[in-house]
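thread: overnight batch results

M.L. [08:02]
morning all. the overnight job finished for the chain we discussed friday. pasting input first so we're all looking at the same thing
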Amino acid sequence: MQYEFRPSGVCSSKIVLDVEGDIVRKVQFVGGCSGNSQGIGALVQGMKVDDVIGRLRGIRCGRRNTSCPDQLAQALLLYQSKNETKE
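M.L. [08:03]
and the structure it wrote out:
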């Protein structure tokens, strides 16, 4: 299932997720640091949603309270909460 998330407090303007069951199939960041965003997407591909959240949640970028990896974790948390209510 494809899901779009609007991050806050980071350079990227959108995160597009493709999640199948509890597995992250694809992640695409729109805007931000292209190399880092592509790297994050490649690293989490095929991982369980809970594992991605556990590894990325709380990562900060410089003095910011968040980062693109943290915003990906936030997107996946929101995705989980919306899909739990559908089951």
